[in-house]
Design goal:
The protein has 876 residues and is α+β, with helices and mostly antiparallel strands. The protein has 28 helices and 28 strands. An eight-stranded mixed β-sheet has the order 5-4-7-2-1-10-13-12. The protein has a five-stranded mixed β-sheet with strand order 15-16-17-19-18. The protein has a four-stranded antiparallel β-sheet with strand order 8-9-14-11, with no helix packed on it. A hairpin with a 6-residue loop joins strand 8 and strand 9. The radius of gyration is 28 Å and the shape is globular. The protein starts with 8 loop residues before the first helix and ends with a helix.
Length: 876
């Protein structure tokens, strides 16, 4: 078998011209053991003309292939390609019988045994080209087809798929659930009872030979990457809404936590569903809506039609803030938007992933604001999501929101573009488009797009044509300027105060960049009684660039904020007077979204070497204790702790930076002593734990199992506290073993792995390194946990010799274990703490290797860019 090949865009175009694919009948047998499963597939397709083609699969063993009843040689499989030469014009039927291998890295069909109770679950992640790990396919997005699954599984499991699943046969079936539809229950208690009734008596999966067969309803035409199955002894809560079955599912050990949040999750789901039905003239296009919270999921969620999969950290085991609940709700809204953007209308090739992700991102935030109690979504977007886009857009790996097709030549390169640009920048561009175009015309264009291309494929040009049908504005020029260019524009106000005559001032906006911007500019004055409080004088409507110079009478404002309301995507600078005002009075700005814009401006100034990191921390100390918006508090503290303290601050100043963060956290704890804001208090406790430089307080909390005045230490806070104590050398293996005995869950296993890797001993570091780069036995989540524990700034001398080892060993690891582990090695195992020239030069030398696996190369490129920036910030 030869090497695996990425599908090129040219190959996909040629195959799409040759074939129409109609139907996949996929039969999976999940009862054959914990390493492999059987997969048999029947594909019906038509060739428009005679010709040669191929399909993709990555089997453990290809047992047999027949084409139109004639056997093909399984040995003809070359890498992941099965040649189909000499196809005659007309209809064909291809049958394959394969043994496939389960994944432990979140790719293909991932298998997970829950350490909490021994139950096993499997779920698919077919994106971007991993369907080939589950069944053979003509694996490209513009060969959409109908899918049906038949799955044999242990009798006490439930099988979910894109369409409604029905249990059609069982051996030794003993209860009424054997003949029921998995989604036909309407009472949560009944659904829970039905699920539990089919469990094995001891709560663990058994191998007694009892099996059941499940069959899914046929889907409408969907792309291969969206086919989905999930099987296991799920805990399910089901209901009906708008005439459709809705369900939420998780593993049994998380059942109490899902039940506690089921009302909120289903309420958000229903409210967003109703709002999308109002916005979109095309009705919801599938037969059900299931949401499965699955273990060890690599993404936040995946928009499989009718069966959305989420990482099951969204089933909260421990206390969370309301902002974190809002982010879960945004993810629910985002994935539901995909039912139209991506699932109903699918991109033709992966240069247009923005047609999926940017729209789902924008619609998720906007629709949640319109339909639910979560009305602060755009402040959270500005404070924590948008910086992801700004940072990505300033790295060497930046790309346009809609890149040139030639820049996405194959699936390997396409996978790299699911980043802050395709999500955060793309959504920001759409928000600017709505501000410029108007929401009415924007929605009209979207609905025309759906009507023209439903159950088919479309491109950027198709979408722009749909928009153009509803406006006189030049949307083609807008798309070229906004979607085909890279980088973030910078907008800087120039204020000139009149020297003579009556008081007055003028404003011009200097733009560094090439995009037009329709923005608001906020003018703020000090409160006459308290100059730490600011009052909005006026909100100006501006187009940038403009030949006009704005003239105003009266005194200049104390603070002028460009891009007030955050309607465009651009870095914003403050004029010198406004900088002084912001540093003194930032918490006194009346609107939280405006405060988020100003905080982002200060953040950019730190990253660009224009504001000292210590000054940023001092501003946080001055204003966060009075900040009312939790998303802003979390965003500022997150940047301050992980970037300012760990990267931008020189080692001899890091202690002072952590002391400032600790002081902020204690200020917030004092503010919340009355129990008025448990989310803010939880945020403060987390920061205090992560920033502690002495163990006494944390040791006391852990011994008492509570923070004085609350909260009590739940599993998340216990593991966080223990991890910090391990870093500081104040806890060791006995404490880790005891914590794991108290919490033997999957999260507990990850916490223990993280703690062991964080221990400050040569033996612990050597063992962790062996696990990461040589044993190849860690699942994707355990790999991440070990990597997170390994590098600690406090242990720089201990791990110094591992820095040059990282690069060649990460390259070898990625080549062995594939893109998911390669990306994890680049993100989590990178020695980011080592902000020095030696690390930078070692990394640049590594990038000279032309054979680095693409997902690792992209991560390294980004990490080294951030490292270079940190070095620049540290240089006086």
């Amino acid at each position: 078998m030869g090497p695996m090949s990425a599908l090129t865009r040219n190959e996909a175009q040629h195959r799409a011209q040759l074939l129409d694919v109609h139907h996949y009948a996929v039969t999976l047998d999940l009862t054959g053991g914990d390493e492999t499963f059987d997969s048999t597939t029947v594909i019906r397709f038509t060739t428009r003309t005679a010709g040669d083609t191929f399909l993709e699969l990555k089997p453990d063993e290809l047992r047999s292939v027949t084409l139109d009843g004639h056997p093909l040689d399984p040995a003809s499989l070359d890498g992941n390609r099965l040649p189909l030469p000499g196809l005659a014009e007309g209809p064909h039927e291809l049958r394959t019988d394969t043994r496939m291998r389960y994944s432990r890295t979140g790719e293909g069909l991932h298998r997970f045994t829950d350490p909490a109770d021994g139950r096993t679950y499997v779920y698919s992640q077919m994106f971007l080209d991993d369907v080939q790990r589950v069944f053979p396919a003509f694996d490209q997005p513009d060969l959409k087809a109908v899918f049906e699954f038949t799955v044999t599984a242990p009798a006490h499991w439930t099988v979910l798929a894109n369409g409604i699943t029905t249990r059609i046969d069982a051996t030794d079936a003993t209860d009424a659930t054997d003949a029921t539809d998995v989604t036909d229950a309407t009472d949560a208690t009944d659904a829970t009872d039905a699920t539990n009734a089919t469990d094995s008596p001891d709560g663990r999966d058994t191998a007694d030979g009892r099996t059941a067969v499940w069959r899914s309803a046929a889907t409408p035409p969907i792309p291969t990457y969206l086919a989905a199955v999930a099987a296991g002894p799920w805990h399910s809560v089901t209901t009906e809404h708008a005439g459709l079955p809705f369900g939420i599912h998780c593993r049994q050990s998380l059942a109490p936590h899902l039940d506690a949040d089921a009302e909120e999750i289903l309420s958000v789901t229903k409210d967003c569903f109703d709002r999308y039905q109002q916005k979109f003239t095309e009705p919801y296009p599938f037969d059900s809506y299931d949401q499965a919270f699955v273990p060890e999921f690599n993404a936040g969620a995946m928009e499989n039609p009718g069966l959305v999969t989420f990482r099951d950290e969204y089933v909260f085991r421990s206390a969370v803030t309301d902002t974190e609940r809002q982010r879960r709700a945004v993810t629910i809204a985002h994935e539901m938007a995909h039912m139209w953007f991506g699932d109903l209308v699918t991109l033709r090739w992966f240069d247009d992933i923005w047609l999926n992700e940017s729209f789902a991102e924008y619609m998720g935030y906007q629709t949640l604001t319109e339909a639910t109690r979560f009305t602060g979504t755009w402040t959270d977007f500005a404070a924590t999501r948008k910086p992801w886009g700004y940072d990505a857009d300033q790295r060497p790996s930046t790309h346009p929101v809609a890149p040139d097709p030639d820049d996405v030549p194959d699936t390997a390169s396409a996978l790299l573009n699911f980043d802050g640009i395709s999500y955060a920048k793309g959504a920001s561009a759409l928000r600017q488009l709505v501000a410029w175009l108007g929401e009415k015309d924007f929605l009209a264009g979207i609905n025309t797009h759906f009507a023209r291309h439903k159950f088919a494929n479309a491109s950027l040009a198709d979408f722009v044509d749909s928009l153009a049908a509803h406006t006189d504005r030049d949307v083609h020029a807008w798309a070229d300027t906004w979607l085909r260019t890279t980088g973030a524009d910078t907008l800087t106000p120039k204020i000139q105060v009149s020297a003579d005559g009556p008081p007055g001032w003028t404003l011009t906006v200097d733009r560094r960049g090439s995009r037009p911007h329709h923005i608001a500019a906020g003018l703020y004055d000090h409160d006459p009684v308290d100059d730490r409080v600011l009052e909005l004088r006026e909100l100006l409507d501006l187009d940038v660039p403009s030949d006009e110079i704005l003239s105003a009478s009266g005194p200049r404002p104390a603070l002028l904020v460009l891009n007030d309301a955050d309607l465009t995507y651009a870095k914003v600078r403050l004029d010198p007077t406004s900088v002084d005002t912001a540093l003194r009075s930032l918490s006194g700005i009346p609107d939280p979204l405006t405060r988020a814009v100003v905080w982002n401006s200060l953040r950019d100034m730190v990253r660009d070497g224009e504001l000292a990191p210590a000054d940023y921390l001092a501003t946080a100390r001055a204003h966060l204790p009075a900040e009312a918006d939790l998303a802003i508090v979390q965003g500022v503290l997150g940047f301050a702790r992980t970037q300012v303290a760990d990267c931008y601050t020189a080692p001899d100043q890091r202690g002072a930076a952590l002391a400032t963060l600790t002081a902020i956290a204690r200020d917030l704890l004092r503010r919340t002593e009355d129990g008025s804001d448990p989310g803010l208090r939880l945020t403060a406790v987390r920061v205090l734990i992560d920033s502690a430089t002495q163990p006494h307080t944390l040791t006391t909390w852990l011994a008492d199992d509570t923070v004085p005045g609350g909260p009590e230490l739940d599993p998340e806070l216990r593991w966080r506290t223990l991890a910090r104590l391990c870093v500081l050398g104040a806890a060791g293996e006995p404490e880790i073993d005891a914590a794991l005995a108290a919490d033997p869950s999957a999260t507990g296993q990850e916490g223990a792995a993280r703690c062991r890797a964080a221990l400050p001993t040569p033996e612990a570091k050597a063992a962790a390194w062996q696990q990461l780069f040589h044993d190849d036995g860690l699942s994707n989540y355990l790999f991440t946990a070990v990597a997170q524990g390994f590098w600690q700034p406090e242990q720089s001398e201990l791990v110094r010799d591992y820095v040059p080892r990282y690069y060649p060993e990460a390259v070898a690891l990625s080549a062995r274990r594939g893109p998911a582990i390669g990306a994890a090695a680049g993100r989590w195992a990178f020695p980011a703490y080592a902000v020095d020239e030696a690390n930078l030069q070692a990394g640049r030398a590594c990038l000279a290797d032309p054979d680095i696996q693409p997902s690792l190369r992209r991560k390294l490129d980004d990490q080294l860019a951030d490292l270079s920036r940190a070095l620049h910030v540290r240089t006086p």
